[in-house]
Write a structure and sequence with these properties.
Number of domains: 1
Number of helices: 6
Radius of gyration: 17 Å
Structural class: mainly alpha
Length: 153
């Protein structure tokens, strides 16, 4: 890789970092009520939607992935060994003040949406229409069906 390509890649990572930090600031504004979104559930849904956008881009774009890793490293957030995987780090980063139980729930829902290949819009719609609990229940039911298919009764 030539110097100009290396500089370009570095600039793209820095640009992605700035965008991630902007989205994290937006999550904080939603959380604090500065975005004018009323209702705890509506604010949580919006925060999760923004977090999902960060997560999807961090998984699909190299510059975003590197930028996200840099931010996690600065915040001393290590990798995760849980089922929710990459979304656990994201949730720890953007929902640091939440209880561990809440963070696990959020990471599982984000991971389920990602495995289901939902777009940002589909995720927002599912949250608005069904809520966090219904999406969690869908994931539990999917796992039960998959487990039962593996049995030879």
């Amino acid at each position: 890789m030539s110097t100009s390509q290396s500089e370009r890649a570095t600039n793209e990572v820095k640009k992605a970092e700035r965008r991630i930090l902007e989205l994290m600031a937006e999550i904080e504004q939603v959380r604090s009520g500065k975005k004018g979104i009323r209702g705890k559930r509506a604010r949580l849904n919006m925060q999760l939607s923004i977090a999902y956008k960060i997560g999807r881009r961090s998984k699909s774009k190299v510059d975003w992935k590197r930028a996200f890793a840099n931010i996690c490293k600065r915040q001393k957030i290590g990798s995760s060994r849980t089922l929710a995987g990459a979304f656990t780090r994201l949730v720890k980063l953007v929902f640091a003040d939440e209880t561990p139980t809440s963070r696990i729930r959020y990471a599982k829902v984000l991971s389920f949406a990602n495995r289901s290949k939902w777009s940002d819009k589909q995720f927002r719609s599912a949250l608005a229409d069904h809520g966090l609990t219904k999406i969690e229940q869908d994931e539990i039911n999917r796992k039960k069906v998959a487990k039962n298919r593996g049995r030879s009764d």
